[in-house]
Write a structure and sequence with these properties.
444 residues, alpha+beta, Nuclear Transport Factor 2, Chain: A, 3 domains, 9 helices, 19% helix
Length: 444
């Protein structure tokens, strides 16, 4: 089959999938938080310390814990009691939405949140349509609008740093509402309501999921000791025959590393309960330790996340930019002046560790700062010449994404490629280099 036919099929799948996704959150060119440019040996992940006694033999299937008493949970996890009181207060108000705490936002973000929550078109689904009863809703993110997220409705934001994207999650409807706000004029420029979509978690919710997993007695029973360390607390997941899948609840999977195995603790953040435990095998990773120094992330942010770049080569012309959660997006692609693609991007990497039980991770890839991505760009985009080995002439635009501690367990590494050939054909390629949280993962 010709390359362009394969590419067309692949892009159709990407475009269909992208129709249900939120756009990626965006940033301003100031105050860029940086990750470490190198990883000291002391920061490398190690297996969670365990007692000398052998832990229980892992069950080959998922363990489904019984629901825990809410008052008992709140007594063991003070953050749950605090959230319950906060929700009780806002549910009784005219706008039943739990906002992000003011102390976690800067002045512009606070103003953007206030403008959005005052807009009826943004909060219209926070009450039940039939009886008007309040529905539990929460602001997850307030982030600067990225250049790649600007649409016809938000064109006024081009070149400005006063526009913000406010993301609201409705637990009852599993609905994400997105408002684009211009803080300079105090107006809401655009609103979208996306059914069956979940935004990326704010840090406080990731911490809450971690506390639920750490304090569940079933976790200690499976491990054979009370744990104190966990990884991947903010990555969304699912589990068949649980409320995560059947009721479309918001679920994440904090994971415990024990020797050559990983215990997944699947936490339902809609009901604030541990709903499943599952073991996976990691395989041998004795040789896998990160050594390569990462590129300065400020450069990546300024030049490739906050700026749309252009490329002309071999008759091709295209724009490209790193998005917040949809990888490297190319747009306005032409060949010898003829239009070829409006845009293309990678929506998600879905990693399944069981075809029967349906649990795994949904990995977003993208910008290393002001981003909702689980796996971020580890360097700038690269252009590679093709045809040197006798193959068709052309070039490829390549973007690498990896966890800082890859290739240690539960650290992921993805590569995205757009290949353009001198004969006018093109191909879209994505690759997974592991290592993941199991040795039997299926990547889509």
């Amino acid at each position: 089959m010709p390359r362009y036919m394969l590419s067309s099929l692949f892009l159709v799948l990407l475009i269909l999938t992208a129709c249900g996704r939120t756009k990626e959150p965006p940033p301003t060119p100031t105050a860029v938080p940086l990750l470490a440019t190198s990883t000291p040996a002391s920061a490398l992940p190690t297996a969670t310390p365990a007692p000398t006694a052998a832990p229980p033999t892992p069950a080959p299937e998922s363990i489904i814990p019984a629901p825990q008493d809410v008052q008992d949970l709140q007594a063991r996890i003070p953050a749950l009691a605090t959230r319950a009181a906060e929700f009780a207060t806002v549910i009784a108000s005219d706008v039943p939405v739990l906002p992000l705490p003011a102390e976690t936002l800067d002045e512009q973000q606070r103003r953007a949140q206030e403008i959005a929550l005052a807009a009826p078109q943004f909060t219209q689904y926070t009450h039940a349509l039939l009886d008007g009863s309040p529905l539990r809703s929460e602001v997850f993110n307030v982030l600067p609008l990225r250049p790649d997220s600007i649409t016809a409705a938000t064109q006024v934001c081009a070149g400005q740093n006063t526009c913000y994207r406010v993301e609201l999650y409705n637990y009852a409807l599993n609905l994400t509402s997105i408002a684009v706000v211009d803080t300079a004029t105090g107006t809401v420029l655009d609103v979208q309501h996306l059914q069956d979509m979940q935004p990326e978690l704010p840090p406080a919710l990731a911490e809450l999921a971690q506390q639920i997993a750490l304090n569940a007695p079933e976790t200690a029973t499976e491990l054979g000791y009370k744990p104190s360390d966990v990884t991947m607390p903010n990555v969304k997941t699912a589990l068949n025959n649980s409320a995560c899948e059947e009721s479309k609840h918001l679920c994440v999977a904090p994971t415990f590393l024990v020797g050559d195995r990983a215990l997944w603790a699947i936490v339902d953040l809609t009901d604030n309960q541990l709903v499943g435990l599952r073991w996976t095998a990691l395989g041998d990773f004795s040789a896998g330790r990160p050594t390569q120094e990462l590129v300065q992330l400020e450069e990546i942010f300024d030049e490739y996340c906050n700026t749309i770049n252009s490329l002309e080569q071999d008759g091709w012309r295209l724009d490209y930019v790193l998005t917040g959660s949809d990888g490297l997006r190319i747009s306005d692609v032409t060949f010898n002046g003829a239009p070829v693609l409006d845009s293309a991007k990678v929506v998600d990497f879905h990693v399944s560790y069981s075809s029967q039980e349906g649990f795994g991770y949904s990995d977003a890839v993208g910008c290393p700062a002001f981003s909702s991505s689980a796996v971020v760009a580890s360097g700038p985009p690269e252009v590679e010449e093709l045809g040197g080995d006798g193959g068709p002439a052309g070039f490829a635009v390549i973007q690498d994404y990896r966890h800082p501690l890859w290739p240690a367990p539960c650290n992921y590494h993805y590569v995205q490629r757009y290949e353009f050939y001198a004969d006018g054909s093109f191909r879209v390629v994505v690759s997974n280099l592991g290592r993941g949280c199991g040795n039997d993962g299926t990547y889509r």
